[in-house]
């Protein structure tokens, strides 16, 4: 968690200092979401403010792993800070399916489970003016409905880097 906060802070400081020009919203982009979980992402804007994002990811630990497939609807709004154009904030909701696998280390200790999650999204997005790159940082609280790790999980979020396919 400390590492994620460090990267999020670094991202914000870097772009508040270096941003200078107005970047336009894009139509679609593909990239990665680095964090919890690390994922491959595709984001498509249906209009200037509304977007749909789909991503699939994985997380591995010693004796423990999970894979997820997620989709979200996000609403984007400009963030008016003097001298920083191309910065927007967004919120939204979505759903995920998680496939868990873990080994307890004991005889017959291999387990697998499937969970469904309801997710919220709150984040910042920055679009460069002269480069087809999009950066995001977000928090994705998740309520797991069933299976391994059922209940609320508030420690999910990522730093995203995407290549803009079309504007």
| Percentage of residues in strands | over 45%
CATH class, named Mainly Beta
Q: How large, in whole angstroms, is the Cα Rg?
A: 17 Å
The overall average pLDDT, rounded, is 82
Per DSSP, the total helix count is: 1
Topology pattern, helix = H, strand = E: HEEEEEEEEEE
* Major pleated sheet: 8 strands, antiparallel, barrel
How many individual domains?
A: 1
CATH fold-level label: Porin
Gross CATH architecture:
Beta Barrel
Question: How would you describe the shape?
Answer: elongated
Q: Percent of residues in helical segments?
A: 10-25%
- Uncertain stretches of 5 or more adjacent residues: 1-23
Instruction: Give the beta-strand count.
Output: 10
Strand ordering within the main sheet: 1-2-3-4-5-6-7-10
Structural class computed from helices and strand pairing:
mainly beta
Distance between the termini: 34 Å
Q: Summed up, what is this model?
A:
The protein is about 10% helix and about 60% strand. It has about 170 residues and is mainly β.
Protein described:
The protein has 167 residues and is mainly beta. It has one domain: Porin, CATH 2.40.160. It has an 8-stranded antiparallel beta barrel with strand order 1-2-3-4-5-6-7-10. The N terminus is likely disordered.
Main features:
disordered N terminus; mainly beta; elongated; 1 helix; eight-stranded antiparallel β-barrel; Porin; 167 residues; 10% helix
How is the secondary structure organized here?
Layout lengths: L1 H17 L9 E9 L1 E8 L4 E12 L2 E15 L8 E17 L6 E18 L5 E7 L2 E3 L6 E3 L3 E10 L1
Antiparallel strand pairs: 1-2, 1-10, 2-3, 3-4, 4-5, 5-6, 6-7, 6-8, 7-10, 8-9
């Amino acid at each position: 968690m400390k590492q994620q906060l460090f990267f999020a802070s670094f991202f914000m400081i870097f772009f508040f200092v270096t941003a200078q020009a107005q970047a336009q919203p894009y139509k679609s982009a593909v990239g990665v979401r680095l964090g919890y979980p690390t994922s491959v992402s595709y984001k498509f804007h249906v209009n200037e403010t509304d977007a749909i994002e789909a991503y699939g990811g994985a997380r591995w630990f010693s004796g423990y792993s999970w894979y997820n497939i997620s989709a979200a609807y996000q609403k984007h709004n400009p963030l008016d800070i003097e001298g920083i154009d191309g910065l927007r904030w967004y919120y939204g909701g979505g759903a995920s399916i998680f496939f868990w696998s873990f080994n307890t280390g004991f005889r017959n200790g291999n387990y697998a489970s499937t969970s469904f999650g309801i997710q919220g999204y709150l984040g910042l997005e920055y679009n460069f003016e002269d480069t087809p790159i999009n950066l995001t940082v977000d928090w994705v609280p998740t309520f797991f409905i069933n299976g391994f790790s059922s209940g609320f999980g508030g420690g999910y979020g990522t730093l995203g880097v995407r290549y803009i396919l079309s504007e």
